[in-house]
Amino acid sequence: MDDLALSVRTARPEDAADLARIYIESWQDTYAGVISHTLLGAMSPRTHTTRWQATIRTMEKHSGTVLVAEDARFGAVGLCSLGKARDGGCGYDGEVYTLYVDPAFLGRGAGRALLTGAFEAFKDRKLRSCLIWAHAQNNACFFYEAMGGRRVATRTTRLLGELTPEIGFGWKRLAARKPARPMQSRSDQS
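The structure assignment produced for this chain is given below.
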Protein backbone atom coordinates (compact mmCIF):
# COMPACT_ATOMS: atom_id res chain seq x y z
CA MET A 1 0.00 0.00 0.00
CA ASP A 2 1.08 3.55 -0.67
CA ASP A 3 2.15 5.68 2.26
CA LEU A 4 -0.38 8.21 3.45
CA ALA A 5 0.32 11.94 3.43
CA LEU A 6 -1.31 12.50 6.82
CA SER A 7 -2.10 15.74 8.54
CA VAL A 8 -4.07 16.30 11.74
CA ARG A 9 -6.24 19.36 12.25
CA THR A 10 -9.16 20.59 14.31
CA ALA A 11 -12.45 19.32 12.94
CA ARG A 12 -15.04 21.74 11.59
CA PRO A 13 -18.83 21.20 11.59
CA GLU A 14 -18.70 20.49 7.85
CA ASP A 15 -16.49 17.44 8.63
CA ALA A 16 -19.36 15.79 10.55
CA ALA A 17 -20.55 13.50 7.73
CA ASP A 18 -17.02 12.10 7.25
CA LEU A 19 -16.62 11.66 11.01
CA ALA A 20 -19.98 9.86 11.21
CA ARG A 21 -18.93 7.50 8.41
CA ILE A 22 -15.60 6.71 10.10
CA TYR A 23 -17.29 6.24 13.48
CA ILE A 24 -19.97 3.88 12.15
CA GLU A 25 -17.61 1.84 9.98
CA SER A 26 -15.15 1.54 12.88
CA TRP A 27 -17.83 0.32 15.25
CA GLN A 28 -19.17 -2.16 12.71
CA ASP A 29 -15.66 -3.49 12.08
CA THR A 30 -14.42 -3.49 15.68
CA TYR A 31 -17.48 -4.72 17.49
CA ALA A 32 -18.85 -7.34 15.07
CA GLY A 33 -19.53 -10.38 17.24
CA VAL A 34 -19.24 -8.29 20.42
CA ILE A 35 -22.27 -6.03 20.03
CA SER A 36 -25.57 -7.10 18.50
CA HIS A 37 -25.57 -7.10 14.69
CA THR A 38 -29.00 -5.46 14.81
CA LEU A 39 -27.67 -2.54 16.88
CA LEU A 40 -24.58 -2.11 14.70
CA GLY A 41 -26.68 -2.22 11.53
CA ALA A 42 -29.07 0.39 12.90
CA MET A 43 -26.36 3.05 13.26
CA SER A 44 -27.60 5.96 11.16
CA PRO A 45 -25.25 8.21 9.18
CA ARG A 46 -27.78 11.03 9.48
CA THR A 47 -28.09 10.71 13.27
CA HIS A 48 -24.34 10.42 13.77
CA THR A 49 -23.65 13.38 11.46
CA THR A 50 -25.93 15.49 13.64
CA ARG A 51 -24.20 14.19 16.78
CA TRP A 52 -20.72 15.00 15.43
CA GLN A 53 -21.82 18.51 14.42
CA ALA A 54 -23.09 19.05 17.97
CA THR A 55 -19.97 17.48 19.49
CA ILE A 56 -17.65 19.74 17.50
CA ARG A 57 -19.58 22.85 18.59
CA THR A 58 -19.88 21.72 22.23
CA MET A 59 -16.22 20.77 22.52
CA GLU A 60 -15.16 24.21 21.32
CA LYS A 61 -17.17 25.80 24.16
CA HIS A 62 -15.82 23.49 26.88
CA SER A 63 -12.04 23.50 26.27
CA GLY A 64 -12.15 20.26 24.31
CA THR A 65 -11.58 19.54 20.68
CA VAL A 66 -12.24 17.09 17.90
CA LEU A 67 -9.31 16.28 15.65
CA VAL A 68 -9.47 14.80 12.18
CA ALA A 69 -6.66 12.92 10.44
CA GLU A 70 -6.75 13.37 6.72
CA ASP A 71 -4.77 12.22 3.76
CA ALA A 72 -4.13 14.50 0.80
CA ARG A 73 -5.61 11.92 -1.57
CA PHE A 74 -8.26 10.09 0.48
CA GLY A 75 -9.58 12.85 2.74
CA ALA A 76 -10.65 12.12 6.32
CA VAL A 77 -9.37 8.76 7.58
CA GLY A 78 -9.61 9.13 11.38
CA LEU A 79 -10.97 11.15 14.26
CA CYS A 80 -10.23 11.84 17.89
CA SER A 81 -12.13 13.80 20.55
CA LEU A 82 -10.52 14.96 23.76
CA GLY A 83 -10.77 17.27 26.72
CA LYS A 84 -10.37 17.40 30.47
CA ALA A 85 -10.55 14.06 32.28
CA ARG A 86 -14.15 13.27 33.20
CA ASP A 87 -13.11 11.15 36.20
CA GLY A 88 -10.54 12.97 38.30
CA GLY A 89 -10.24 9.95 40.60
CA CYS A 90 -7.78 8.25 38.27
CA GLY A 91 -5.24 11.06 38.60
CA TYR A 92 -5.03 12.20 34.96
CA ASP A 93 -5.57 15.74 33.65
CA GLY A 94 -6.82 14.99 30.14
CA GLU A 95 -8.83 12.29 28.46
CA VAL A 96 -9.11 11.03 24.90
CA TYR A 97 -12.83 10.34 24.63
CA THR A 98 -12.79 8.73 21.18
CA LEU A 99 -10.14 7.66 18.68
CA TYR A 100 -11.32 5.90 15.53
CA VAL A 101 -9.65 5.14 12.21
CA ASP A 102 -11.40 4.15 8.99
CA PRO A 103 -10.98 0.34 8.85
CA ALA A 104 -9.54 0.63 5.31
CA PHE A 105 -6.62 2.65 6.73
CA LEU A 106 -5.72 0.71 9.87
CA GLY A 107 -2.03 0.17 10.53
CA ARG A 108 -0.96 3.08 8.32
CA GLY A 109 -0.20 5.69 10.98
CA ALA A 110 -3.48 7.56 11.37
CA GLY A 111 -4.03 6.38 14.96
CA ARG A 112 -0.46 7.30 15.88
CA ALA A 113 -0.87 10.73 14.25
CA LEU A 114 -4.14 11.35 16.10
CA LEU A 115 -2.72 10.31 19.47
CA THR A 116 0.31 12.54 18.93
CA GLY A 117 -2.03 15.39 17.91
CA ALA A 118 -4.13 14.80 21.04
CA PHE A 119 -1.02 14.99 23.23
CA GLU A 120 -0.04 18.29 21.59
CA ALA A 121 -3.55 19.66 22.17
CA PHE A 122 -3.32 18.67 25.84
CA LYS A 123 0.05 20.40 26.17
CA ASP A 124 -1.43 23.55 24.61
CA ARG A 125 -4.13 23.45 27.31
CA LYS A 126 -1.50 22.95 30.07
CA LEU A 127 -2.71 19.38 30.73
CA ARG A 128 0.19 17.07 31.55
CA SER A 129 -1.27 13.56 31.51
CA CYS A 130 -3.87 11.55 29.64
CA LEU A 131 -6.30 8.67 30.13
CA ILE A 132 -8.10 6.62 27.47
CA TRP A 133 -10.85 4.11 28.22
CA ALA A 134 -11.21 1.20 25.78
CA HIS A 135 -13.65 -1.70 25.59
CA ALA A 136 -11.75 -4.69 27.00
CA GLN A 137 -12.34 -6.66 23.77
CA ASN A 138 -11.20 -3.84 21.47
CA ASN A 139 -7.99 -4.51 19.55
CA ALA A 140 -7.03 -0.89 20.28
CA CYS A 141 -5.81 -2.11 23.67
CA PHE A 142 -2.72 -3.47 21.92
CA PHE A 143 -2.24 -0.17 20.09
CA TYR A 144 -2.42 1.90 23.29
CA GLU A 145 0.14 -0.33 24.98
CA ALA A 146 2.43 -0.15 21.93
CA MET A 147 2.17 3.64 22.12
CA GLY A 148 3.34 3.68 25.74
CA GLY A 149 0.01 3.61 27.57
CA ARG A 150 -0.06 1.65 30.81
CA ARG A 151 -3.07 -0.30 32.04
CA VAL A 152 -4.03 1.78 35.06
CA ALA A 153 -7.68 1.00 35.78
CA THR A 154 -10.68 -1.13 34.94
CA ARG A 155 -14.37 -0.42 35.16
CA THR A 156 -17.71 -1.74 34.01
CA THR A 157 -20.03 0.62 32.16
CA ARG A 158 -23.21 0.25 30.16
CA LEU A 159 -22.83 0.21 26.39
CA LEU A 160 -26.14 0.13 24.53
CA GLY A 161 -27.74 -1.26 27.68
CA GLU A 162 -25.20 -4.06 28.18
CA LEU A 163 -22.66 -4.23 31.00
CA THR A 164 -19.29 -3.68 29.35
CA PRO A 165 -15.79 -4.13 30.79
CA GLU A 166 -13.35 -1.33 29.98
CA ILE A 167 -9.64 -0.83 30.52
CA GLY A 168 -8.11 2.56 31.27
CA PHE A 169 -4.75 3.32 29.64
CA GLY A 170 -2.73 6.17 31.10
CA TRP A 171 0.19 8.34 30.14
CA LYS A 172 1.70 10.33 33.00
CA ARG A 173 3.97 12.04 30.46
CA LEU A 174 2.49 13.04 27.13
CA ALA A 175 4.79 11.30 24.72
CA ALA A 176 3.59 8.54 22.44
CA ARG A 177 6.18 5.83 22.05
CA LYS A 178 6.90 4.76 18.49
CA PRO A 179 6.16 1.06 18.06
CA ALA A 180 9.23 -1.13 17.47
CA ARG A 181 7.68 -2.23 14.18
CA PRO A 182 4.80 -0.88 12.11
CA MET A 183 1.44 -2.02 13.43
CA GLN A 184 -0.29 -4.30 10.95
CA SER A 185 -3.28 -5.33 13.07
CA ARG A 186 -6.73 -3.79 13.51
CA SER A 187 -5.46 -1.72 16.40
CA ASP A 188 -5.57 1.95 15.50
CA GLN A 189 -8.95 2.60 17.04
CA SER A 190 -10.68 2.66 20.34
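Interim note for the steering committee: The two ends are 23 Å apart (CA to CA). The first strand starts at residue 6 and ends at 10.
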